[in-house]
Amino acid sequence: MRITGTMVNYYVHCRRQCWLFANGMGFEDDREDVLIGKVMHELQSEGKKNREVAIEGIKVDKLTSDYVTEIKKSDADVEATKWQTLYYNNHNMRCIEIALRHQL
Predict the structure, then answer these.
(1) How far apart are CA 9 and CA 64, in angstroms?
(2) Has residue 16 got a pLDDT over 90?
(3) Closest Cα to residue 68, out of 87, 42, 43, 47?
(4) Three-state secondary structure along the chain?
(5) Angle at Cα 81 formed by Cα 69 and Cα 4, nearest 5°?
(6) 58-60 and 53-55 as β-strands: parallel, antiparallel, unpaired?
(7) Which of 1, 4, 31, 58 has the highest CB neighbour count under 10 A?
C-alpha cells in the first residue's frame, strides 16, 4: 500500500478515518464540507500560476520555489495539515524539484 499525504492527514486527525480511507471506504466525497472545500480550491487556484501539481502519486495544491501549500476550507486541524505538508516535503522532495523545474 502506498502512503499518501491524505492518509497522513487522516492518521493525525483520526486513525479510524485513515483506516477507512486506506481500505477504500472513504465516505466523505459527497459530504457538504468536502464539496465546499473543492469549490474553494478551484476558486483559489483559478487563473493562477503554480497551482495544483500531480506527480508520482502526490497532489500538491500550490507549489513555488519556496513553499509547498495545502489549501483547506478551515483551520480546524492545523496539526494534520502540517504533517501532510511535511510528508510532501520530506518524502517527495525529488519529485517536487522536478515539478518546479518544469513550472518555473
Answers:
(1) 21
(2) yes
(3) 87
(4) CCCCHHHHHHHHHCHHHHHHHHCCCCCCCCCHHHHHHHHHHHHHHCCCCCCCEEECCEEECEECCCCEECCCCCCCCHHHHHHHHHHHHHHCHHHHHHHHHHHC
(5) 85
(6) antiparallel
(7) 58
Q: Give the residue-averaged pLDDT of 77-101.
A: 74
pTM to 2 decimal places: 0.65
> What is the average pLDDT value for the chain, to the nearest integer?
75
Segment 21-65, tens digit of pLDDT: 899 887 666 678 777 777 776 776 666 665 667 766 667 777 766
Sign of CA dihedral 95, 57, 4, 99: positive
By residue count, the chain amounts to 104
Predicted confidence (pLDDT) at residue 7 exceeds the cutoff of 70: yes
Q: Cell numbers 525529488 label which residue? A: 94
Q: CB neighbours (10 Å) of residue 52?
A: 14
